[in-house]
Sequence to fold (254 residues):
Amino acid sequence: MKKTYRWDNLTSRELGALAENNAIVLIPTGSTEQHGPHLPVGTDAILATWFAELAAQGLVEKGVPAVVAPTFAIANSMHHMNFPGSLSLRPRTYMAALEEQCRAIAAHGFKRIAIINGHGGNIAPSKAVLVDINIELGFPVYFLEYIVVDEAPFLETQKGMIHACESETALMLAYDESLVDPIYKETTGYPGGCTKWEDEGVLHTFHRMEAHTVNGVMGNSCAATREKGEALAAATTAKLVEILSDETIWQMKV
Fold:
């Protein structure tokens, strides 16, 4: 069935009309990387796309035109590359590709672009390249995580998302239970950092994922439920729509 909020489902003429109508373009950024023994390697891309689509639908229902651009399914996952199935671009390659994507979208007349991110490894390079993107395009392109609410009230063993954890597993159960291996019910992983100085945010460096966890999990997937995921998804979708429909953000100057 045709999804009128998806860029790749629309004709050139339909996209031209959306540009003329000042539509918001949402770019999902995820990854293809290991997510422990229970979640698919596409988890980040799947969830980023899902929330971008939910936000687009919510915006359209409010009378705000919106469309979801093709997903960045392979991005910066260098820290996961020693786990089978993980794929990655080097950070500079990802930054260049994201810049080119925004440039191409803007070339068709779109002036409202937001990057909806679902992968921690994309945060630093995305924020860095926004400097060049915004200066070149002349209008603010925004970057935000798909989780824009406090997760703690929805979880039992964590305050927020880590990796293949209670939160992420719950969301995947809400999206499609068939994608989650039942082994999640008995899976946990070390959720900490490497040194107290890194945990406190004083030191920053690069570590491979195995420096943090043996099984690729950080957190308690065993505590996840579909009901938690559904409640969290509903709350963060509503907040995404509220943020992106705020006209003041699109009136800001670079």
Q: What stands out?
A: The beta strands are 24-29, 66-68, 112-117, 142-145.
